[in-house]
Structures are given as C-alpha cells and as structure tokens.
Amino acid sequence: MEHSDPVRRTQRLGAYGIVVREREQRELLITRVSPSGYPAGWWALPGGGVDHGESPNDAVRRELHEETGLDVLEQRLVEVHDVHTVAPGRGDAWEDYHGVHLLYACRVDTDAVPHVVETGGTTDLALWLPVADLRDGRPLLPVVEHVLDRLDQLAGVWNSMT
User: What band does 3 get if pLDDT is binned at 50, 70 and 90?
Assistant: First the structure.
C-alpha cells in the first residue's frame, strides 16, 4: 500500500483479562471503547496499557477494576497475542502499529454487576455477554476474536483456579 503521508510507529504493551462466567450460557466480560478511545464503539476485553515500570500482573488488576469495577481474585497468564497493522489510525494519520497483548485468565465475583469506574477514559460500558451472541455483527477488536477462537481450549484454566 503506497501513501505519501509520514507513518507514525507505535508499539504498545497491554494486559487484558479474560473473565468468564458460567450461567445458563457461558458469558464473557466485555467492554466497549468510548468516543475518546480508538476505535470508538468497538468491543474489547477489559484491560489496557502497562504503565512504564508497572508489572503486567498489577496492570491487569488495575485496568480491570477501572473498566469494570470488579476486583481480580485470582489471575494466570495464559496467552500472548499481537497485532501489527499499517493503516490510517487515530485522526486518520498513517500509523505502523504493533500491539502486544498479555492475556490473563481472571477470576472475579461473578455475581457483581460490572460498571465503569474510570471517568473520561477509553471505556464507556462493561457487561457480561453470552459468548454465543458476541459474533452478532458488533465490531470486535482482533484480540477478542483471538480469545473467542480459543475459549474452549482455555476453559480448563478457570476450572483449575480456586
């Protein structure tokens, strides 16, 4: 793909929680990107950037609480995902973006109602959605697609967590 605009290179390390609850149907805790985030309106896993000097283990707990109001009771690193694109990004500026996503299986109080705690952040909604409904046409970030494709393989992790 050729273009004449300068390309901004960005690499981002993030820590994300995969939080599942078993009810009548298997449900996944999911968040929606706010108008101040990118891409707005897309659905994501709770989590986000690891701050400079911050442990990814601490980052997933912090981010999950900020975006869902839920406290992580137990966590386990289960997968690493990455995405690399060169395309128009924020503000339609060309961006060479590489996102590295550390994925944690997390256990929370599944009876608690998720709610966004952080004001003015990049998440405007957090909720439990049946896994069967997630591919209903809503825009999902690639990391969500990645997790959905592997959810059955990861199910044993939650069963082994106390």
Answer: low
Q: How far is CA 139 from the centre of its chain?
A: 13
pLDDT tens digits along 93-120: 889 999 999 999 999 999 999 999 999 9
pTM: 0.91
Residue type, 53: G
Q: Record the tokens describing residue 136, joined without a space.
A: 């209903």
Q: What is the mean pLDDT of the chain?
A: 92
The residue to which tokens 């897309």 are assigned:
42
CB 41 within 8 A of CB 14: no
Q: What is the pLDDT of residue 132?
A: 93
Q: Which one, of 43, 58, 28, lies nearest residue 129 by Cα?
A: 28
Concatenated DSSP letters of 94-147: EEEEEEEEEEEEEE--TTSPP---STTSSEEEEEEEEGGGTTSS--B-HHHHHH
Both tokens assigned to 48: 């986000």
